[in-house]
Amino acid sequence: SAVSFNFSCFQKCVNFNQAQKIFGFDETSYIGKVSFPAIQATPSFSTSFPHLFGNRKIPCLIPCAIDQDPYFRMTRDVAPRLNLPKPCLLHSTFLPALQGAQTKMSSSEVNSAVEVCDTANQIKKKINKYAFSGGKTSVEEHREFGGDTSVDVSYKYLEFFEEDDAKLAKIKEDYESGAMLTGFFRCVIC
User: Fold this and answer.
1) For a designed S-S bond to 44, which of 87, 148, 164, 185 qualifies (C-beta 3.0 to 4.6 A apart)?
2) Nearest CA among 121, 184, 120 for reference residue 152
3) What is the CA radius of gyration of the chain?
4) How far apart are CA 11 and CA 162, in angstroms?
């Protein structure tokens, strides 16, 4: 298939020393980990999908988070050697895992993320039960010192999805001053 052909060609353009410098592989790295960059790169080329694009060499726009940048920098370096257009990157911001920015969303941990297919009720339950809070340990302490929006996952989600900047600023002000409690804050997002 075209995907297999591009995958094979791509693998021949990157040696282990190059991959080691880019991704930090060592002698204990598993073969699957070492081969993954070529798997990640292959869909960046329109020639991998002749059923969609024929034989046209069309540049690809890749929306990705910054952690994917090494894969696509390598892909951009290899593309001219394959006589293919370099893909373009559109870096996006991470949507944090429900447990906080220090953790990652994982398909193996169902409660680490809000899934596209989750119902409104499932989303509400996940946020109320699992979303890391920037609130304080007691109502009294929260009222006195306010919440920390820099670590509060519900607030981080609002930064992505609340379209009204004035409303977002007011929520932030109320939460950080202690006027809004975590429970009320979560009601805003749900």
Assistant:
1) 87
2) 184
3) 22
4) 43
Token representation of residue 51: 């059923």
How many other β-carbons are positioned within 10 Å of the β-carbon of residue 75?
27
- Across the chain, which has 190 residues, the per-10-residue mean pLDDT values are 93 92 93 92 95 94 89 95 95 86 80 88 90 92 94 91 93 95 76
Task: Mark residue 164 as left, alpha or beta (left: phi above 0; alpha: psi -120 to 50; beta: remaining).
Answer: beta
Name the token pair of 32: 């699957």
The pairing of strands 61-65 and 88-92 is: parallel
Exposed, middle or buried: residue 171 (CB in 10 Å: 0-12, 13-18, 19+)?
Answer: buried
What's the helix, strand, coil split of the chain in %, to 5? 55, 5, 35
What length does the chain have? 190
